[in-house]
Specification:
10 strands; globular; alpha+beta
Length: 250
Amino acid sequence: MLNTYQRSYQVHYYETNFMLEASPVTVLGYLEETATWHSETAGNSIASLNAAGRGWVVYRYHLQVSRYPRWQEKITVTTWVERFQRCFAYRNFYIHDAGGNLLGRAASVWIFLDIASKKPLRIPPAVSAPYGLYPEAAIPAGFSELPTLESPSITAEFTVGAADMDINHHANNKRYINWLLESVPLEVHRQAFPATIEIVYKKDARYGDHILSESQELKAGDGTRCYLHRLTCPKKELELALARTTWQER
């Protein structure tokens, strides 16, 4: 696969959940780390982008997992840019185990922006060209419209702390995933795993913000459960993210 980048990982104990599986947040961390190293090797390092007052923020994720890797297991993440469109980069991922079996796949959309103004910028050729393109969609269905909740029945509350912050001085995108999964009942986590996670990021969460995570269960087929999610900052009257998860019985 030309114009792709690979990186291997071994699942550490501190990255696992109570099932000794890499958590969804851990898996997204592997994806983020691989994408960051891809940019570093392409010459678009964090340092060079920061010096130019530029940066990337994630806008959408669609993750599909057939099995989460377990403690000590070795995996390989492959990433590539499918296409660039104005200020958007469409980045894809495959996750394989040590035997070459496909464990998961993901599609993502990233926005190139001016860090100070938060204004999206058209991606210049000097930034896009070094990546090259691999015109394959990891998830052919891509992204669909995420409905908002009509009757949320489960809630959880959080406050953005220093450990939640990223280099752009707002809550890291992985923390959003953690907050929305925390609104799913514990018995569901014990009986099933999040086989798909779809999220659209709408607004930044800042240090000290109070976060409300709401979920609503939808009807699903046998052996699966489906939830709609919403993250808000009530004090600022902001809708931070919408998401949908499906859970597969273990």
